[in-house]
Amino acid sequence: MNLPKKCLVDTNVPKTANLVMRADSELDVPYACVLACIEAVEHVIKKRCLIIDAGDEIFSEYRRQLSMEGQPGVGDRFMKWVHDNRFSFTDSDRVTITRNGESYEEFPIHEGLANFDKSDCKFVAVSNAHIDKPPILQATDSKWWGWKDSLAEVGITVHFLCPDYAEAKCAEKMGT
Question: Is position 86 within any domain?
Fold first, then answer.
């Protein structure tokens, strides 16, 4: 898998990586998707290529959904790594975003993003505010599949780790 040099990591990536500890019969996502998420998390840790917001909104979301102890899963190890290293990131990789109601001033204005999930706006705002507009790694949230073209039109790339899964789930939810 060709992973980016710098990126944002949606919370469902480390959460999906944590699923490796479950039996195949317990998984609701393909095992290949779980492995892709593990690879992505390990890449981000090894290359120190994570972009986050300076106000810790992304970190806080990670904290609510992952273990700060760094175990038992790979995604939890990612959480501990972010906790231990986030203040050593360069200033350019800790992006300032400004709240504006339920969204952010840095969130792009585009008709196709009018109904964007409010809880995910921070990832898009950070990418949009960063000088390089780094891609957002996405695993299993199929809503992003429906927004990918609109995001691309404003210069934001979503790097799907499980594209077949996201596309199929999006089509299923849309009834197509």
Answer: yes
Number of structural domains in the chain: 1
Query: Does some domain include residue 1?
Result: no
Distance, in Å, from the CA atom of 53 to the CA atom of 128, rounded to the nearest integer, reads 11
**Is 16 contained in some domain?**
yes
Domain that holds residue 149: 8-174
Alpha helices in 10-142 (DSSP H): 12-17, 31-47, 57-65, 74-85, 121-129
Q: For 100-112, what is the mean pLDDT?
A: 95
Q: What is the pTM of this model?
A: 0.94
Residue 3 lies in a domain: no
DSSP 66-122: S-TT--SSHHHHHHHHHHHHGGGS-GGGEE---EETTEETTSPP-GGGTT--GGGHH
Closest Cα to residue 84, out of 103, 105, 109, 62?
62
Structure tokens at 63: 């904290």
pLDDT, tens only, 27-86: 688 989 999 999 999 999 999 999 999 999 999 999 999 998 888 899 999 999 999 999
Distance CA 166, CA 137 (A): 12
